[in-house]
Write a structure and sequence with these properties.
- The chain is α/β, with parallel strands linked by helices.
- The protein folds into two domains: about 100 residues, K Homology domain, type 1 (Ribosomal Protein S8, Chain: A, domain 1); about 220 residues, 3-Layer(aba) Sandwich (Rossmann fold).
- The protein is built from eleven helices and eleven strands.
- It has a six-stranded parallel beta sheet with strand order 8-7-9-10-6-11. Strands 1-3-2 form a three-stranded antiparallel beta sheet. Strands 4-5 form a two-stranded antiparallel sheet.
- The termini are far apart.
- About 35% of the residues are buried.
Length: about 325
């Protein structure tokens, strides 16, 4: 049996780290196979495996450090810090306490929650064009919309333009009721939701009426030059090569583009080349263009989402390489 102690300096930080009904500490105990007991002003961490005890102590100390900087502690960042500690990257944990990117209509601060997200946000701020590629739940679209709202509120741009291709994922677009706008609205719903969260419905509608916000299918971008705008192309894996080139060449003066997508979820016909894959290959190394890859460790949804993504990746590896006519970069 190995035991290590941690000194507790501030009660409020300890309460934050422990969580409601000690839920955060229970996660550490379960993941590390250790026991954590509070005695007087000390935490006692014990277990059969000395390495696991060491990892648990490092994780708890990292969480206390984050808490002292005003960071909220929840299941997602507890599990993420455990990953960093186990992979020997605990020295990078201090970078997680980042700046607030935007504040939602309800007053909730939006920050990068993982190192991958932090690099993604920094790339958006630094570059004219940023490609954010990663699986579901990594915050690609949400953080891009937050960056757009922040730029708009800081008067760095005059417009926010959100677009995505209306590609069918097993359903038939023509069978949906209503006119063209009604048919494409379900495809644009994630973008609406993110904007509602950031601005509130009333402010969103005000800016929409003034033309400061535009949410439209990708086909509506053809023939335009977009100056002083923050433009987001979502679900870009479902663009064709021609659509991607058309979209990128809409860039005007004083504008910024963020392109997001998941190259494992391409809904194009097998004989069509994904515009996102092509862009990743063609634009690699081009000045003022950044390509950011997020992974399952950057997933900030339910922990089960991470496990699902990993299970699918492992299944793909077991099945071996297969012919893919959509060209891998």
């Amino acid at each position: 049996m190995t035991e290590q102690s941690i000194s507790l300096e501030r009660l409020e930080e300890t309460i934050n780290v422990f969580g409601s009904f000690d839920e955060n500490i229970r996660i550490i105990e379960g993941e590390m196979e250790v026991s954590v007991v509070s005695r007087d002003s000390m935490l006692k961490v014990s277990g059969e495996n000395a390495e696991n005890v060491m990892y648990a102590v490092k994780a708890i100390e990292a969480l206390m450090s984050l808490s002292s900087r005003g960071e909220a502690i929840n299941e997602q960042n507890v599990r993420y810090i455990i990953q960093l500690v186990r992979s020997g990257n605990e020295s990078q944990i201090s970078q997680l306490a980042g700046d607030v990117l935007c504040v939602t209509a309800k007053g909730r601060p939006i920050k990068a929650k993982t190192l991958g997200q932090k690099k993604y946000v920094e790339a958006i701020k630094k570059n004219v064009v940023t490609l954010g590629i990663g699986p579901a739940g990594t915050g690609k679209t949400y953080l891009a919309v937050a960056a757009a709202v922040a730029a708009f509120q800081a008067k760095e741009v005059n417009r926010i333009i959100l677009t995505r291709p209306a590609v069918e994922a097993g359903e038939r677009l023509g069978f949906l009721p209503g006119d063209l706008q009604s048919k494409v609205d379900p495809y644009l719903r994630p973008l609406y939701d993110a904007l509602f969260d950031m601005l509130g419905a009333e402010t969103y509608n005000k800016y929409l009426e003034r033309g400061n916000i535009e949410v439209a299918p990708l086909a509506y971008m053809r023939g335009r030059t977009l100056d002083d705008s923050f433009i987001i192309l979502d679900e870009a894996q479902n663009t064709s090569r021609e659509q991607m080139k058309m979209f990128l060449t809409r860039l005007g003066f004083g504008s910024k583009i963020v392109i997001t997508g998941d190259i494992t979820q391409i809904d194009l016909p097998a004989d069509k080349v994904s515009g996102l894959r092509e862009a990743m290959r063609v634009l690699k190394g081009v000045e003022d263009i950044s390509i950011c890859r997020l992974t399952e460790s950057d997933v900030v949804r339910h922990v089960l989402v991470q496990r699902i993504i990993k299970a699918y990746e492992e299944d793909e590896e077991r099945r071996g390489p297969k012919k893919d006519r959509r060209e891998r970069p």
